[in-house]
């Protein structure tokens, strides 16, 4: 009686199972792993830049390689994306907005650094700049991967620096060196802040999230 009824019910359920949505267990590792990788890369670039900046500033010579040299930021340097934003204001942005700002900034900074690579006067310095540019290109791609894994679109429009014909060139060697100085200084600040950004983000997104997702059969 009761056993036969239960058996009949189970048979009917199994026969109709293909018509029901399937419960699928999916392990989503992408976001957490991508954030951790990007955080590690920012810390590596911070370390790498300390050596590179010292070598490059020595190449520029005094006063740029003097520890207490702290010139005012010139209007020309405004072409380089500035990281000097109020920290409370920066933290008040959404994760998407901060990631987009990081992506745009490093894309532009990379273009300027590649220009330095072509102008460096020694083979050793060109080699170091080239290696750093490759690492920074990896960071740009890594940030894009984080945005994709979190479902954020990449910023629209060109990511590189403005290339309009009216962009002025440095009228003398000192101002050219000043441009290089501010490029390295801003890059140091961006990397310092980005490391903090990705450290906070990796605490919000666990390295592995197991989710149950309903997937309709046949779709």
TrEMBL record:
Keyword flag NAD: no
Protein's GO biological process: cell surface receptor signaling pathway via JAK-STAT; positive regulation of B cell proliferation
Signal peptide limits: 1-22
Source domain of life: Eukaryota
One protein family per Pfam: PRF
GO cellular component annotations of the record: CNTFR-CLCF1 complex; CRLF-CLCF1 complex; extracellular space
SUPFAM superfamilies: 4-helical cytokines
One function term, GO molecular function aspect: cytokine activity
Subcellular location: Secreted
Keyword annotations from UniProtKB, A to Z: Cytokine, Glycoprotein, Secreted, Signal
Keyword Acyltransferase in record: no
Principal location class: secreted
Role summary: In complex with CRLF1, forms a heterodimeric neurotropic cytokine that plays a crucial role during neuronal development. Also stimulates B-cells. Binds to and activates the ILST/gp130 receptor.
Subunit details: Forms a heteromeric complex with cardiotrophin-like cytokine CRLF1/CLF-1; the CRLF1-CLCF1 complex is a ligand for the ciliary neurotrophic factor receptor/CNTFR. The CRLF1-CLCF1 heterodimer binds SORL1 (via N-terminal ectodomain); within this complex, the interaction is mediated predominantly by the CRLF1 moiety. The tripartite signaling complex formed by CRLF1, CLCF1 and CNTFR also binds SORL1.
Family that this chain belongs to: Belongs to the IL-6 superfamily.
Designated name of the protein: Cardiotrophin-like cytokine factor 1
Natural source organism: Oceanites oceanicus
């Amino acid at each position: 009686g009761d056993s036969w009824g239960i058996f009949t019910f189970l048979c009917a359920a199994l026969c109709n199972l293909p018509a029901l949505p399937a419960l699928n267990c999916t392990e989503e590792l992408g976001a957490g792993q991508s954030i951790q990788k990007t955080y590690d890369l920012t810390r590596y670039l911070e370390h790498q830049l300390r050596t590179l900046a010292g070598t490059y500033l020595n190449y520029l010579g005094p006063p740029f390689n003097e520890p207490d040299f702290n010139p005012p930021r010139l209007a020309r340097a405004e072409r380089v994306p500035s990281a000097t934003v109020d920290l409370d204001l920066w933290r008040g942005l959404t994760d998407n907005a901060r990631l987009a700002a990081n992506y745009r900034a490093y894309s532009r900074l990379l273009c300027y650094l590649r220009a330095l690579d072509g102008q460096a006067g020694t083979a050793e310095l060109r080699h170091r700049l080239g290696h750093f540019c490759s690492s920074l290109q990896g960071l740009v791609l890594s940030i894009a991967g984080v945005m994709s894994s979190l479902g954020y679109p990449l910023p629209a429009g060109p990511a590189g620096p403005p290339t309009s014909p009216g962009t002025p060139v440095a009228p003398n060697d000192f101002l050219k060196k000043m441009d290089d100085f501010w490029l390295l200084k801003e890059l140091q600040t961006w990397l310092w802040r980005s490391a903090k950004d990705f450290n906070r983000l990796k605490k919000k997104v666990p390295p592995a999230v197991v989710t149950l997702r309903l997937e309709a059969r046949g779709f």
